[in-house]
Amino acid sequence: MFDQYGPPPTADEILDALDPEQRRVAKSVDGAVCVLAGAGTGKTRAITHRIAYGVLTGVMQPTQTLAVTFTARAAGEMRGRLRQLGVSGVQARTFHSAALRQLQFFWPRTYGVNAPRLVERKVPLVAEAVADCRLRADKAELRDLTGEIEWAKATQTAPDDYPGQVLATKRKPPRDAAEVARVYAAYEKIKAGRGQMDFEDVLLLTVGLLDERIEVREQVQAQYKHFTVDEYQDVNPLQQRLLDLWSQQSRSLCVVGDASQTIYSFTGATPGFLLGFRHRHRSAEVVELVRDYRSTPQVVRLANRLLTHATGEAAKHRIELISQRADGPAPEYVEFGDEPGEAEGVARRVAKLLEQGVRAAEIAVLFRTNSQSESYEQALADLGIPYVLRGAERFFERPEVRQAAVLLRGAARSADSGAGSGLAAEVGAVLVAGGWTPEPPSGSGQVRERWESLNALVRLSEDFSAARPEATLADFVEELAERANAQHAPTVEGVTLASLHAAKGLEWDAVFLVGLTEGMMPITYADTDEKVEEERRLLYVGITRAREHLTLSWALSRSPGGRPNRRPSRFLDGLRGGGPVSSGGSFARTAGAAAPASGEARERAERRTRSGPVRCRVCGRGLAEAAARKLGRCLECPSDLDEELYQRLLDWRKGQAAELGQPAYCVFTDATLTAIAEAQPSSENQLAAISGVTRAKIGKFGDDVLALVAGRVPGTSEPFVEAP
């Protein structure tokens, strides 16, 4: 990297900073060049150095050079790198930003009026269109309809042609294709009548302007002679049409992409333009970047093996990566008994990495759908590990979850009695009004995402009821409020929680790919070979985000004690030979986390690895439910709870939570406090044997808890005296 404050590099120094393949890219400053760049191979470095080399050698003029990409972040990174290379004046923009700039400049000069006003939120207009068509749609359906209209416009499909296009492409629309077409037409009519345009219109109107007005097209083509397109595998037909109009008279056109990272087909993106580039530009130079500077050989080998099983057109052009880094740890495969155990096991491994000096910001937990985030948010919060949720609203800030909270609060206020064992059924009955159904909706999209979020609340109520059989709906509402407050607390540098789609373009030292079961990866609604292959590419993107540490995990059942009827993802077939499969129960030892320090804690961890269940300490029966295992006894067996001690623990926890600015459950859950009040531990070893008491929590709270159990005021030798 060049010093941005020192003298700018020379053309030779630009080339000297590159590997042989990158150097070929940089020197191809005339004509067409197609760069097939694998993950972590330095594609941004190659194309920015190419632009800098072209400027320094006089082939390119900065003001005649346009670099386009798909996100403002990527465009900003390109501008920053060009500045470091001593190049200014080059336009680096997104497709929409570049088109909007041209539209706002040429529209008034061409038509004598300002360009239509840009509407940033389409959903309200779609809602009006639905009403005009005398149809009904809730918020989730409106978002799905909006997405479908975006797809139609990106593929240049008019409302009248939409039903036929759906039939031809075997697309599954969010509702009847004829109804979607009617809404689409009404939406366009409303928007045009108000002199408005949406983001897709920015491209459509620019294409129309350049197509119809030769004087405008010639001026744009005279302005820009050199084009660079990043992430070219994500181009849709409308963007390609605009690029064709821009670059008809260009001196050079450089595109860069990787067909194996095409994961946005639902937006109309297709790798066909990348793969067909050499056929449209017969004299194009094709350069493959295969040297992976991001990931260790172990991670790279796994990524390569995954793609050897791929099929389809993109698979024919896959890139075999070659790692340039030193050896690292082998990827780990971890099988858990249930989803909560998976979340807790991953959180423990994260804690171990933090102890080893890995920064929280260099760790990511990646999942297939946003609805999976809640259990990982909770597991990290339980260990006091900060996190940030990327690419999605926080779980408790999602509209459907906020609406559900309102419904539950209203129901709790009007409830005549606490439901106790019927809490989950009561929550489910309330959430039916919010759109929840016992069975998931078919297909994908916002409707499915909303259902997943609401279903997560129903599942949460099941777990809450199991831990507190006497809990009422009001208790559950209070628990939800505490969890929501924890998410609103100021967050410092934290572990990233993100969907695989949101992780595209990012990288971390350590990556956990979680929930890798059939039905989730590939997702249930991936019902064609093409969709399954896109799911494989999505997993490939996840694997290649990791620089050094990579863990792939799955759970055999949804909840503790449930039937282990889930199967690991088919994508793992043929991969696990590269690394052992660890049992989630022994995760602390097999996956490198700290081994339990105490004899009783070690015995407890070993009990989890045995096939037989934990036994009730009262009657000796096997314990299957999570709440029962946490207490160490059947829920119906008599409790030897010390009521006074339990109340002391509750009061102490309330003070600790207020001091830390966290909800009470982040200190200890109710079930853990109950177990402490029953077991009455007298040493750290005995305290560590209680489920929910981690070594980290012993370090923070152990002395206080043991003092309370012994009847002393924490931090003193004074006996605890109950208030009169």
From TrEMBL:
<feature type="region of interest" description="Disordered">
    <location>
        <begin position="580"/>
        <end position="609"/>
    </location>
</feature>
<dbReference type="InterPro" id="IPR010997">
    <property type="entry name" value="HRDC-like_sf"/>
</dbReference>
<dbReference type="GO" id="GO:0033202">
    <property type="term" value="C:DNA helicase complex"/>
</dbReference>
<dbReference type="GO" id="GO:0000725">
    <property type="term" value="P:recombinational repair"/>
</dbReference>
<dbReference type="GO" id="GO:0016787">
    <property type="term" value="F:hydrolase activity"/>
</dbReference>
<dbReference type="Pfam" id="PF00570">
    <property type="entry name" value="HRDC"/>
</dbReference>
<dbReference type="Pfam" id="PF13361">
    <property type="entry name" value="UvrD_C"/>
</dbReference>
<feature type="domain" description="HRDC">
    <location>
        <begin position="639"/>
        <end position="719"/>
    </location>
</feature>
<feature type="compositionally biased region" description="Basic and acidic residues">
    <location>
        <begin position="600"/>
        <end position="609"/>
    </location>
</feature>
<keyword id="KW-0067">ATP-binding</keyword>
<dbReference type="InterPro" id="IPR027417">
    <property type="entry name" value="P-loop_NTPase"/>
</dbReference>
<feature type="compositionally biased region" description="Low complexity">
    <location>
        <begin position="583"/>
        <end position="599"/>
    </location>
</feature>
<keyword id="KW-0413">Isomerase</keyword>
<dbReference type="GO" id="GO:0005829">
    <property type="term" value="C:cytosol"/>
</dbReference>
<dbReference type="GO" id="GO:0005524">
    <property type="term" value="F:ATP binding"/>
</dbReference>
<dbReference type="InterPro" id="IPR002121">
    <property type="entry name" value="HRDC_dom"/>
</dbReference>
<feature type="binding site">
    <location>
        <begin position="37"/>
        <end position="44"/>
    </location>
    <ligand>
        <name>ATP</name>
    </ligand>
</feature>
<keyword id="KW-0547">Nucleotide-binding</keyword>
<dbReference type="InterPro" id="IPR044876">
    <property type="entry name" value="HRDC_dom_sf"/>
</dbReference>
<dbReference type="InterPro" id="IPR000212">
    <property type="entry name" value="DNA_helicase_UvrD/REP"/>
</dbReference>
<keyword id="KW-0347">Helicase</keyword>
<dbReference type="Pfam" id="PF00580">
    <property type="entry name" value="UvrD-helicase"/>
</dbReference>
<dbReference type="InterPro" id="IPR014017">
    <property type="entry name" value="DNA_helicase_UvrD-like_C"/>
</dbReference>
<feature type="domain" description="UvrD-like helicase C-terminal">
    <location>
        <begin position="297"/>
        <end position="548"/>
    </location>
</feature>
<protein>
    <recommendedName>
        <fullName>DNA 3'-5' helicase</fullName>
        <ecNumber>5.6.2.4</ecNumber>
    </recommendedName>
</protein>
<comment type="similarity">
    <text>Belongs to the helicase family. UvrD subfamily.</text>
</comment>
<feature type="domain" description="UvrD-like helicase ATP-binding">
    <location>
        <begin position="16"/>
        <end position="296"/>
    </location>
</feature>
<dbReference type="InterPro" id="IPR013986">
    <property type="entry name" value="DExx_box_DNA_helicase_dom_sf"/>
</dbReference>
<dbReference type="GO" id="GO:0043138">
    <property type="term" value="F:3'-5' DNA helicase activity"/>
</dbReference>
<keyword id="KW-0378">Hydrolase</keyword>
<dbReference type="InterPro" id="IPR014016">
    <property type="entry name" value="UvrD-like_ATP-bd"/>
</dbReference>
<dbReference type="GO" id="GO:0003677">
    <property type="term" value="F:DNA binding"/>
</dbReference>
